[in-house]
Amino acid sequence: MPEDLWHAIVNCDVAYDGRFYYGVVSTGVFCRPSCRSKTPKREHVRIFLTTGEARAAGFRPCKRCKPDLQSAACIPRDGEVDVTRA
What we know:
- This protein has 2 helices and 4 strands.
- It is an alpha+beta fold.
């Protein structure tokens, strides 16, 4: 795995969101690079360019970062409430 991708995962770098996704073999979950979940062991990480590739490899989307949604901007942070007025 290239160092820049590993550093994006370790640092939860939102700038890499949409550029790749990573799956964790030990959990069967795939995430966005910006996911705030516990940093996985490097040897357990698999890199995917799309969510479809991750799903085809048998991984399910993370319930925390929701990589299957198009944009992380639509995910409220803990304690926030999304209120839209018409």
